[in-house]
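To close the section, here is one more complete example, presented without commentary so you can practise reading it yourself. The ligand is calcium ion.
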Amino acid sequence: MARTRVIVDTDPGVDDAVAILLALASEELEVVAITSVAGNVGIDATTLNARRLVELAQRPDVPVARGSARPLNGDPQLEVSVHGADGLGDLVWDEPQVPEHELDAVDLQYRLITEAPTTIVAIGPLTNLANLLSRYPQAESLVERVVIMGGASFEGNVTPAAEFNIWFDPEAAAAVAAARWPMTFMPLDLTHQALLNDEDLAHLRGLDTAVGHRVAAMLEPYALFHDEWYGNRDVIMHDATAVYELIDPTAIEKQGVAVTVETGGEHSRGATWFDRRRANSNSTTTVGVTLDNDRFASVIRERLARFA
Ligand code: BDR
Ligand code: CA
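Output:
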């Protein structure tokens, strides 16, 4: 089987953690790096969390490189309440032994995309990808594909207009959306169909492995947050949908679009416009529309059970 070579660009983040573990467990993918970006928590914490996760997965061979500490214009505004103060639900971890890579995220991404066809899975704010495009303009034609968790058509989750990853750095998102690389977005309209419920959490806990225990423990405060915010404990696995799409490209129905990002506006900064009109039906930019939650949850259960 031809494996898809992927870089995971991420701001872990509880749902990022599930996405990273899903990628590392999946034989369809070859994870060649994890690159951190500020988002859910600051860059020190997201980089530390990425190192914790490769160590939890017993994959110290996967390099972790530090990315951008702040959005292109301005200072980071952090979402500490959603993922805990440390980004991973405030559990106790041993200090990871896996070092940070000597290159920064963008230089490592560029090195890897020049070596072989590579897909970037971007599940945090898009600052690193915007910096990749400005530092290495040839990246636009070198990258095989970009799969992004970000955006919303119906409703945002930070403001009525904006989803978190886009809202955090709209200028970066606008630059990435304007690039001509093949690209797929997983917006909130899709990710809200990808849920794990209390039975799934009990299943993960019952695996009786380090990964099972940690993931179930991380997801517990995330479920409380969902209960308060959405009125039930089902946790939304935003970021895992982007990895899921790469594992099984038929699992998510997609639609050709043109994407623009609002960088101005009094109420709409960070909004994404997915132009779904027929003229865009054959576009190389697509947006995820539907997935089957039972199938998704069973893949998460089965893949996370692969860790010893
Ligand atoms: C996105 O924001 C973060 O809180 C999640 O990790 C995900 O990437 C969802 O809006
Ligand atoms: Ca994320």
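Once you have examined the tokens, check your reading against these statements. The chain has a mean pLDDT of 96. The chain has one domain: 4-304.
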